[in-house]
Amino acid sequence: MPNDSSSPLIPVLAILGAVTALAIGTATAKHLLFPLIGAQGTTAVRVGFSALLLLLLWRPWRRPMAWPDLRAVACYGAALGLMNLCFYMSLRTIPFGVAVAIEFAGPLAVVLWTMRQARDLVWVACAVAGLGLLLPIASGTGGLDPTGVGYALAAAVFWAAYIVFGKRLQHIHAGHSVALGLLVAALVVVPAGVPYLGDALLSPQVLFIGLFVAAISSALPISLEMVALKRLPPTTFGILVSLEPAVAALMALLLLDEYLSSWQWLAIGLIVTASAGSTWSSKRTTAIKPLAPER
After folding, report:
1. Residue 119 sits in which domain range?
2. Which residues contact 169 (CB under 8 A, 6 or more apart)?
3. Are 33 and 213 in contact (CB under 8 A)?
């Protein structure tokens, strides 16, 4: 009788489950928390509770760290916090799926930077074409808000920084580095969200939704991704993760009634193609720490 634990479907389903959980958590935050505490307050609650959950789960203080690692964690966590804040700020005025697609320019740029083959220009062209269709200067954007796009682009820059600093922590257990990074991220973004929280922080509704969003956007996806990382080659892992913009757009359609134009769907498809193709072509693995802390 075959051993189900060795089935190649398990890690694939784990990644798809992680990406879907992340999208559901973000859609829930936008739908239920934004009206109550705004984007800044939502970021504070989401990152704060995520840090608390992962610190309790991994207890990273049990392993001492060298000063160079602590400095890298500080930079990694600051980038993580600002990435979250800018991303949620973008969601105030542009669709969720579009924001994710624009934000994907960050990790995509990191991967493309390492490439030297002429054939890799195909993925660059796909990325540029996709972003060109989404940016406000394009005729097919459907009138995207420039401020929202600007926040999404800022989130892309911080995501790229998050990856660069995260590579310096590859020798540390992913759960520990992410937990510590989220602690730093909370110290960065919670002060920005406190003025928007007020008495809402004592509201059972906000506390319950915040804990739910933190759990489904952090603890669950990270656990699923670790299952997949143990069983999948890094390239396959990266290609599957590249589906995130498409999954986000689909979840936004189902949960938020955010309908995209055909041009926007085409743009998302081009960015997904560029991300998956560049991951497949890359000879050097660009390690992206688990996606879960991102949103």
Report:
1. 4-294
2. 69, 72, 73, 76, 177, 289
3. yes
Report CA-CA distances (Å) from 252 to 138, 279, 295: 22, 25, 14
Q: Does residue 214 contact residue 14 with C-beta atoms inside 8 Å?
A: no
Q: How confident is the model at residue 167 (pLDDT cuts 50, 70, 90)?
A: confident
The DSSP secondary structure of 235-293, one letter per residue, reads HHHHHHHTTHHHHHHHHHHHHH--PPPHHHHHHHHHHHHHHHHHHHH-SS--PPP-SGG
Least Cα distance to 50 among 22, 72, 14 occurs for: 22
Angle, vertex CA 16, rays to CA 14 and CA 18, nearest 5: 70
- C-alpha pair distances (Å), 79 with each of 51, 268, 270: 15, 24, 26
Asked if 56 and 284 touch (Cβ cutoff 8 Å), the reply is no
Q: What is the count of structural domains for the chain?
A: 1
No. of helices (H) and no. of strands (E), the chain: 13, 0
The rounded mean pLDDT for the chain is 87
